[in-house]
Design brief:
single chain, 236 residues, alpha/beta, 8-stranded mixed sheet, 8 strands, 37% helix, 17% strand
Length: 236
């Protein structure tokens, strides 16, 4: 498969995902490459992942996972990590409320690049994709359009959020039909450190669960030690 190199003529990106740690399963490697080149990358998480640690009650797990996401982001040069309010882990829906909040965030951050995760039912390896991932991945595509149209969610303009139609590329990672890639060989170790920062989350996984390095080698690995982040990219 021959993929195009991901565009480089931009300065601001917003990476959107459902839970803390979602971005660390591959996208963080590309983020590390982008921040090393001087680009601004912000993270936006729809939930705090409070239902993600089976041995910890949600009211305890939420703050833990939020901090682990901030720690992981720091490893790849991201200093601005934001969480939406009012959305619960595990029960997200691709509805108008989520689209409105994502459109608001895009107007606030004014990115040129928006990334998310695939909304397909499964991943290339055959594993099923979670409902939250699918809801966010699909809604991001619609929210980008809504962010640029003042007549969609006009209440956002009344709140002072003028339309932002400056998103030039939308990238959906971990899908079946990638079109572009970022060579992340030089930032692979930083991506591993970013996932390793989710210490309490990882500690609660089964003992035979692959290590962060093993997981990312499988996700990003290629021939002869080369690593690449791959995504389906739409140019607007």
């Amino acid at each position: 498969m021959t993929l195009q190199p991901f565009p480089t003529d931009w300065q601001r990106a917003l990476c959107i995902a459902a839970h803390p740690d979602d971005l660390e399963y591959g996208t963080a490697a590309a983020v590390a490459t982008w921040t090393a080149a001087g680009r601004q990358v912000d993270y936006l998480l729809v939930t705090r992942g409070e239902a993600g640690i089976a041995t910890m009650a949600p009211e305890q797990a939420g703050p833990v996972r939020e901090q682990e996401e901030r720690d992981g982001a720091t490893e790849v040069g991201v200093t601005r990590v934001h969480f939406l309010d009012g959305f619960a882990d595990g029960v997200l829906e691709a509805d108008l409320r989520l689209r409105r909040e994502l459109a608001r965030a895009i107007r606030v951050h004014r990115p040129e690049v928006v990334t998310t995760l695939t909304h397909a039912e499964s991943f290339p390896g055959g594993g099923l994709n979670q409902a939250d991932h699918r809801a966010v991945g699909l809604t991001v595509l619609d929210a980008v359009a809504a962010a640029g149209n003042r007549w969609i969610f006009p209440e956002l303009v009344e709140e002072g959020h003028e339309p932002w139609d400056g998103v030039r590329w939308v990238a959906s990672a971990a899908g079946h039909q990638p079109t572009h890639e970022v060579d992340v060989t030089d930032t692979f170790d930083r991506a591993v450190a970013s996932l390793e920062a989710h210490r309490q989350y990882l500690a609660a996984l089964p003992a035979d669960y692959p290590s962060p390095r093993q997981l990312l080698t499988g996700i990003l690995g290629g021939d002869e030690g080369r690593f690449a982040w791959r995504a389906q990219v739409w140019e607007r």
